[in-house]
Amino acid sequence: MGAMTEAAIDNRDTRERILDAAEAVFMACGYDGASLRQITGEAEVNLAAGHYHFGSKEALFQAVLNRRLHVLNQERLRVLDEMEAKAGGAPLKPSQILDAFFGTLLRMAIAHGDRGQTFLRLIGRTLTEPAEFIRTVLSKEFADVLERYKAALFRALPEVPKEEIVWRFHFMLGATSYAIAGTDTLRLVTDWQTGAIDDDLERLLPRLMSFLLGGLRAPLPAAASPNPQPRGNGRTRRKKP
Amino acid sequence: MGAMTEAAIDNRDTRERILDAAEAVFMACGYDGASLRQITGEAEVNLAAGHYHFGSKEALFQAVLNRRLHVLNQERLRVLDEMEAKAGGAPLKPSQILDAFFGTLLRMAIAHGDRGQTFLRLIGRTLTEPAEFIRTVLSKEFADVLERYKAALFRALPEVPKEEIVWRFHFMLGATSYAIAGTDTLRLVTDWQTGAIDDDLERLLPRLMSFLLGGLRAPLPAAASPNPQPRGNGRTRRKKP
DNA sequence: GCAGGATTCAAACGATCGTTTGAATCATAC
DNA sequence: GTATGATTCAAACGATCGTTTGAATCCTGC
Prior knowledge:
Chain A is mainly alpha-helical. In chain A, about 70% of the residues lie in helices and about 0% in strands. Chain A has a domain at about 65-190 and about 195-215: Tetracycline Repressor, domain 2. The relative contact order of chain A is 0.10. Chains A and B meet through helix 1, helix 5, helix 7, helix 8 and helix 9 of A and helix 1, helix 5, helix 6, helix 7 and helix 8 of B. Chain B binds a DNA duplex through helix 3.
């Protein structure tokens, strides 16, 4: 296969042009909906260049994802480490943890301009992609980060059952993922002017943080009883024998 | 083409079998990832039956969606009407509105057993589908309901800017959509036993409602100033936790 | 029974997909 | 300048997709 020598000066041009185009097309069409011809066409490179540089469509998607996701999650870990070191053994505040996780995401996206926004929306949509290899890539890439942040939240909220914290982390991921997935979905609930999300992106972080913090610290649901009462609609949920 | 007379007794069998299979396959693979051969194969009907009964893949997807989504949204409107009639002109409580919207969704899904759960996950994933015709279908199907519920929330929270309510509605939709989209995504954040979401589905509603209510009623973000500060990280400090 | 429309079926169509091939082009090292 | 390996290119491959076709089969009304 690729017998890479040290002569790699110009190929970064083609490689990155493919990555940029793929990022945009995958974001707009989803993994299955995007075609290599569309991607290489938009990148103005030959169709075979995609396979030459990446090997397959799956590998290309993985490369698009990891190019920015890996540095994002490294930064997330670094910020959390720094916070915990500064706290000196004391638990962090929930607002700090959420800002380290979601704030780092949004600030990195803002710092990268249009490209960062495209990647934001790609991430938001990728988290709901059904293809199995995508789920595998995501779970590997997020494993460390989620484990560390979960632990931080457990320490920050010792009175809240861990199960509940995991659920609420899940809800927060969903709210964020959905919010950054793009204006198209937002246009579904409102009739505002389109575009102009550039201005809103900076305003999104405080909005989102308030919402997430409110949800995370909400009073616990009434009955976490281990015996769930059969609600008004007492439908049997046994499997047929 | 379809010159439907009144002889439609048996075709409901084939039609519904296709709809059920399509619901499952679309849920598992997404719109682009699902193939008519897979659907008709799982339904044990001929490949051409799909086109005979529905005309096209897009129309089939739309039929799958509307079959349950339409009655869901009708029920949502009915429940809201009933609440407002009972309140007699007074604004509803936010918790009532959220329960009417999200509770109706989950309760209907629970009442329909496994099929309801499949549709729940299909809805959760469909809300993030990039295909344009899907977005068109969704926006038409949700237009009335979202308008009515937005108005109800405006009246319930007169002190909160409408813009903020719309954003938080958006966040709530995302959290819910993500939570019901399936265990696969949840397995990303936790290592729990798979399956067993059957038991959790009934517990999901109180959990979700607590989180959503907490987020909806959270203190407003600090500066909604028309002049966005150069990222002063304006941390809201209005209420004590 | 039979006529006629509704439905099913096997087979194929054209298009598009991801991928491969093999030669042409480029850049570098001797 | 020539050899060598990296990169590009046009063209095709086989597979799969959504869709169409036309005949076979089923069902119903008379």
